[in-house]
Amino acid sequence: MSNDPGKYPFTRGIYKNMYKDKLWTMRQYSGFTSAQESNKRYQYLISQGVTGLSVAFDLPTQIGYDSDHSMSEGEVGKVGVPITSIHDMETLFKDINLKKVSTSMTINSTAAILLSMYIVLAEKNKISIDKLNGTIQNDILKEYLVRGTYIYPPNQSMRLITDIFSFCEQHIPKWNPISISGYHIREAGSTAAQEIAFSFSNGIAYVQAAIEKGLDPNIFGQRLSFFFNAHNGFLEEIAKFRAAREIWAEIMKKRFRVTNEKAMMCRFHVQTGGSTLTAQQVENNISRTAIQALSAVLGGAQSLHTNSFDEALALPTTKSAKIALRTQQIIAHETGVTNYVDPLANSEQIEKLTKDTIIKVREIIDQIDDKGGAIDAIKDGWTQQEIANSSYKYQQSIDQKEKIVVGMNKYTEDDELNINLQKIDENALKKQVSRLKDLKVSRDNMIVKNKINAIEQCSQTNENLIPKIIEAIRSECTLGEISDAMRKSFGEYK
């Protein structure tokens, strides 16, 4: 076992020289109101130095409803961008060079549909899809755990995920077909060790499902990615990231007999802790975010999003998003930490914390294995209860002032809030619904019906669904129509 960066088990980093050769991808998670408004924000962020896009979708898009559906009322464009058809996708990425930008899409239940839209968009722009670079989250197990934006039962959802794995391996080799998320697990109240253990147990389930599909982990393992939280506890978080690389490398090598070292690497995106942001004295969040972002960099992240200081109250404004981006740029160019591969290596405390985290994570994974694996532990409710217990303890520690949150339970002020917040344009939301209704009238609905029927029929076979979904999108079928076709075959998970 080597202790050198770029070598198994990769504790000190997955690349020999880390940021000395290339900085992490700087992303800013964004999406709101409409595809047009979101495009303006993306264009602005690119002009300010963002090196990768990160798309937030609204709740209807996440759970497979068109903007004109009764279930979508009041939620269109509120927490992300509404995408219902290929035309929305074209507007979202207008004048953005897909060959030069890496796009991450935070989407799970409808990941197959949004990826297919992105593929059709590339075709329309005469870009070969084997050149596309990006990630879809596509992590449905954590939706059952903590977020709830699932549609289909677990087995059918896993089928969609492995269909994506297979399609990407054959046609989009540079695309990451999944971003296994510990972030949302941590946001729900887990500990650092639970965040890694639960996300890795989910990862084990995905790898096993792909192998049973006939895929080679030496190949698809190279494109697996993870999504972690940079929380409070500066040293603990650095150790957590180092520990994660070692544990995942060991899982791939020893559990799945992987021989390709690239398939053993734990590549991960990090977002600073949303749950740590306070509505009180919101400017304090700038400092919190900076410290959390620094822990991600010192921990060797491949990609980073820094939360905006006003996100405890609303979607970020242009100004707050720029400050968040500048935080990353200051760390990259002014602190000097990028001159070193693993700056805190051989620190007695960091090394001890890393080893302690590894032990804790392994113990939790063993517990999940004893319960039959991640899916069985979720169905049983065990994992959810463990997170709930940790969340309760954490909140108690704040309520009892064992943990100090500056501006909230100590050093408080009674001053009224006086900052400008991002507003949602209600007229833009009405236009979104109107455009969709016009589309459903103007397109060839006979072709639409045939394509939707083809998806429904394919859902009842073992055939890969992605080509059928792509064909449907080319024919102007909507996200909701495609989701409903699979609802008919798969059913819904309650």
Structure description:
- The chain is α/β, with parallel strands linked by helices and about 500 residues long.
- The protein is about 50% helix and about 10% strand.
- It has 19 helices and nine strands.
- It has helices spanning about 35-45, 60, 85-90, 110-125, 140-145, 155-170, 185, 190-210, 215-220, 235-255, 285-300, 320-335, 350-370, 375-380, 380-400, 425-440, 445-460, 465-475, 480-490, and strands at about 25-30, 50-55, 100-105, 135, 175, 180, 225-230, 270, 305.
- The protein has a nine-stranded parallel beta sheet with strand order 5-4-3-2-1-9-8-7-6.
- Helix 11 links the parallel strand 8 (about 270) and strand 9 (about 305).
- Helix 1 runs parallel beside helix 3 (about 85-90) and helix 8 crosses helix 13.
- The longest helix has 23 residues, at about 350-370.
- The chain is globular.
Give the tags.
single chain, 494 residues, alpha/beta, TIM Barrel, nine-stranded parallel beta sheet, 9 strands, 50% helix, 8% strand, globular
Query: Judging from the principal axes of the Cα atoms, what is the shape?
Result: globular
* Computed CA radius of gyration, to the nearest angstrom: 22 Å
Strand arrangement within the widest β-sheet reads 5-4-3-2-1-9-8-7-6
CATH architecture: Alpha-Beta Barrel
Q: Give a quick account of the main beta sheet: strands, pairing sense, barrel closure.
A: 9 strands, parallel
The first-to-last residue Cα distance is 46 Å
Strand fraction band?
A: 5-15%
